Amino acid sequence: MNWKFAKSEIYRTLLYIPVSILKKVGRFAIKRLIFTDNLKKIA
């Protein structure tokens, strides 16, 4: 097995986990921001 390839695979896996969490959190944050913004417009 090529060491460089293995290294890049490990990095990709390590990066993928926090990125997927950030995406979920980011989507939730954006939804909340839009929701509160709409509430302010109504109020």
Strand content: under 5%
Number of helices: 1
Portion in helices: over 70%
Q: Quaternary status of these chains?
A: single chain
How many angstroms does the end-to-end distance come to? 62 Å
H-E string: H
| Residue runs with pLDDT of under 50 for 5 or more positions | none
Arithmetic mean of pLDDT: 90
Work out the number of β strands. Answer: 0
Q: Please outline the major beta sheet.
A: none
User: What's the number of structural domains?
Assistant: 1
What coarse outline follows from CA principal-axis ratios? rod-shaped
Q: Determine Rg (CA atoms, Å).
A: 19 Å
| Estimated structural class | mainly alpha
Structure description:
The protein is built from 1 helix and no strands. Helix content is 93%, strand content 0%. The longest helix has 40 residues. The mean pLDDT is 90. It is rod-shaped and about 60 Å long. By secondary structure, it is mainly α. The protein has one domain.
Which key features would you list for this structure?
single chain; 43 residues; 1 helix; rod-shaped; mainly alpha
How do you describe this structure in short?
This protein has about 45 residues and is an all-alpha fold.
Spell out the blueprint of helices and strands.
Blueprint: H1 3-42
